[in-house]
Design goal:
Helix content: 55-70%
Shape: elongated
Radius of gyration: 21 Å
Largest sheet: none
Order of helices and strands: HHHHH
Amino acid sequence: MGRRELGLTRVAEDAVVMLGQQIRMARAARGMTAEHLAGTAGITRKTLAAIEHGSAASSIGNVFNVASIVGVPLFGVDDPSELIALRRRGEERLALLPARVDKKRKDNDDGLDF
């Protein structure tokens, strides 16, 4: 199944491919074989190949796990403790949002303010 078949925007497609490239380059820079990385991540060699080739069908959890194992920064953050802080700030901000978002109702402006 191609990336376009999955409905990805061009930006999303480029990001998935770029992350796969970064993972493959980081693995090579560390001298890790694909078999070793796949085993460490608990995935098959075929799944790792799909990730490294930018398959949009790969689980985001597997992709992020592999990226973290080889040291690819996620969200531009090198320090894991900084990522934890970003996560907590996000959770705090989300807690301030309403539980759901309703469609806007058409304004029935009859000139009367009640």
